[in-house]
TrEMBL record:
Any one GO biological process: phosphate ion transmembrane transport
InterPro entries assigned: AAA+_ATPase, ABC_transporter-like_ATP-bd, ABC_transporter-like_CS, P-loop_NTPase, PstB-like
MF term (GO), any: ATP hydrolysis activity
One protein family per Pfam: ABC_tran
Keywords: ATP-binding, Nucleotide-binding, Transport
Upper classification of the organism: Bacteria, Bacillati, Chloroflexota, Ktedonobacteria, Ktedonobacterales
Gene Ontology CC annotation, any one: membrane
PANTHER family attached to this UniProt entry: ABC TRANSPORTER I FAMILY MEMBER 17
Region described as Disordered: spans on this chain: 1-40
Organism: Dictyobacter alpinus
Protein name (Swiss-Prot/TrEMBL): Phosphate ABC transporter ATP-binding protein
CDD domains from the UniProt entry: ABC_PstB_phosphate_transporter
Record domain ABC transporter: where: 63-303
Length: 308
C-alpha cells in the first residue's frame, strides 16, 4: 500500500517527516514553538533512534494477555483481547478516542479495581500467575508494573520526597533511599536539572520535568514493566521529545507499554503497535509492519487518516 495520509505525509517509521522535526530557513523568533532550533536539536538526537534496529520479535513474553473482556457495570469496554507483551520492547496502543486503550492499559496493573462496578474475564499471565486473580497482591503488582499518567501528578512535597516515597513505605534505610533517589533521577534524565534543589517543591518544576519526576518515582521501586498513558500529551514539543528520548533509553532495561494518540510518536518509539477499535484489538504487529503493511482494512483506514 502507498502509505500516505490524506495530508500527504508518510507514516512508515524512519521514512517520513514529522512536522516538529522539519527544518526551515525562517528566523527562530518567527517560528512556531514546535519548530525552534531547540526542538530540531532534540529531534536530531531522536532521529538516531530507530526501533527497527532493536525490534526483537522473539523476545520473551513479559505479560501474556489472553481473551480479556472488561466491563464497566453493564457496559462492555474490551472484547476478547489477547496480546503478548514482549520483554524490553515498547508496545504502543493506538486507536480512536474511546476505543479502550486506557482501559486495557489499566487492566495490566489492576488500576481499574479502583472503579466500582467493574468486572474482568480472561487472564493475563505475569511470571506464570494471572494478574486478574483475586489472590494477586495488588500493592506488589503495582510496584512491579509501574504507571505514569497523562498529566504529571507529583505529590505536593519536595523533589526528593516524591522519589523517596515508595522506598520509605518499604522501610528502606536512609543510605539506600539516598542512593536510589539519585539513581532514579538519573534514570529519568532529570538529575542534572534538579540535583541542586532536591528539597524544593516538586510543584515548582516545569510540566516536562514533573513528568520525568513521576517517571523517576515509578523507577525508584524498581518495576519490571512501565505503563505509560499518553505520557506526553500534556507537554510542549521539547518536553515531548525528551520523554520520547527517555523511553528509548528506558526500554533497554524495562518492558514498556504506552498509550498514544500520536501515530508518529508510536512510530518513533515503539517496537510493536496494537490498534484498538470499539473495544476490540484489530491488529497487533511490529510497528514497522503495521504502518507499512496493515493487514486489516480498519487499520489501514485509521493510519491513513480516514477516521479517528
Ligand atoms: N469509569 C468509567 N465508567 C464507565 N465507562 C467508562 C469509564 N472509563 C471509560 N469508560 C468507557 O469505556 C470505553 C473505553 O474508554 P477508554 O478510556 O479506555 O478509551 P481510550 O481509547 O483510552 O480513549 P481516549 O483516547 O479518549 O483516552 C469508552 O466508551 C469510555 O466511555
Amino acid at each position: 500500500m502507498e502509505n500516505q495520509r490524506q495530508d500527504g505525509t508518510r507514516l512508515a517509521p524512519g521514512n517520513y517527516k514529522v512536522s516538529p522535526m522539519q527544518e526551515t530557513d525562517q528566523p527562530a523568533d518567527q517560528l512556531p514553538a514546535d519548530q525552534t532550533p531547540e526542538v530540531s536539536d532534540a529531534a536530531r538526537h531522536m532521529g538516531s533512534f530507530d526501533p527497527t534496529k532493536t525490534l526483537n520479535t522473539d523476545a520473551n513474553l513479559r505479560i501474556d494477555v489472553r481473551n480479556t473482556n472488561f466491563f464497566y457495570g453493564a457496559k462492555q469496554a474490551l472484547y476478547d483481547v489477547s496480546l503478548p507483551i514482549r520483554e524490553k520492547q515498547v508496545t504502543a496502543l493506538i486507536g480512536p478516542s474511546g476505543c479502550g486503550k486506557s482501559t486495557f492499559l489499566r487492566t495490566l496493573n489492576r488500576m481499574n479495581d479502583l472503579i466500582p462496578g467493574t468486572r474482568i474475564e480472561g487472564e493475563a499471565l505475569f511470571d506464570g500467575s494471572n494478574i486478574y486473580d483475586k489472590k494477586t497482591d495488588v500493592v506488589l503488582l503495582r510496584q512491579r508494573i509501574g504507571m505514569v499518567f497523562q498529566r504529571p501528578n507529583p505529590f505536593p512535597k519536595s523533589i526528593f520526597e516524591n522519589v523517596a516515597y515508595g522506598l520509605k513505605v518499604q522501610g528502606k534505610s536512609q543510605k539506600f533511599i539516598h542512593e536510589r533517589v539519585e539513581t532514579s533521577l538519573r534514570g529519568a534524565a532529570l538529575w542534572d536539572e534538579v540535583k541542586d534543589r532536591l528539597n524544593s517543591s516538586a510543584l515548582g518544576l516545569s510540566g516536562g520535568q514533573q513528568q520525568r519526576l513521576c517517571i523517576a518515582r515509578a523507577l525508584a521501586v524498581q518495576p519490571e514493566v512501565l505503563l505509560m498513558d499518553e505520557p506526553a500529551s500534556a507537554l510542549d514539543p521539547i518536553a515531548t521529545l525528551k520523554i520520547e528520548e527517555l523511553i528509548t533509553d528506558l526500554v533497554k532495561e524495562y518492558t514498556i507499554v504506552i498509550v498514544t494518540h500520536n501515530m508518529q510518536q508510536a512510530s518513533r518509539v515503539s517496537h510493536f503497535t496494537s490498534f484498538f477499535l470499539s473495544g476490540k484489538l484489530i491488529e497487533s504487529s511490529p510497528t514497522v509492519d503495521l504502518f507499512s503493511h496493515p493487514h486489516q482494512k480498519e487499520t489501514e483506514d485509521y493510519i491513513s487518516g480516514r477516521f479517528g
